[in-house]
Amino acid sequence: MAEVPPTRMNEQVFKAKKKAAQSGHKLLKKKADALKVKFRDYAKSIAETKSNMSGDAASAFFSLTQAEYAAGNFKQKVAEGSLTARVRVGAGIDNVAGVKLPVFTKYETGAAADNQSLGLAGGGKKISAVRDKFTVLLDMLLKLASLQTSFVTLDEAMKVTNRRVNALENVTIPRIEGVLDYIARELDELEREDFTRLKLVQGKKEEEAKEQQKKQTATAAKENQEDITAMYDATDDADVVF
What we know:
Strand content: 5-15%
Radius of gyration: 49 Å
Largest sheet: 2 strands, antiparallel
Distance between the termini: 101 Å
Number of strands: 2
Order of helices and strands: HHEEH
């Protein structure tokens, strides 16, 4: 604080800084609250998705076992195909309170399926059911990946935002208030010194005026007490004859 000159200009500057810090603290607090609400929503969605996904995964793999039982081991035939992906995963961005969250979505590539002939000898219906159930499972995996990635990103953003809020609340704003208190004390002290100096100057002027008045009064009294006739010699005047 000693390096801050206690002037009116600096007082106005630090008042503006305090106002800006308080506004920033208020906005960051709102952001932290919004992130906290979104964080809880993601945590709830992740728990629900995992709960549903366990059943979907069990159903999908059970249907795969049924298809292998009905159509035989068709994995080799699938591996011998072109293996051109008909579904790919794309990444997008969702903005939540200024935080960019990744969102994963799937899209069709338009490639032709080369394993439609699977199950013609038997088990075709089971293989089709496996395809449908694993498609649903893929959607659940993409949803879970988006939720968990966003959950981790939100967690880091919340930590950073809370650190900033705490820094403003416990360090920056108290420091600015301390500087303002220091400037106010110093300015009050300067005002008291100026007031005391003015009182001394005024008192000295009043004393000088009193002394001058006393001198003038003494001079006037001395002039009144002098004998006017002593200034003249009676022998110098001629006799008056009637």
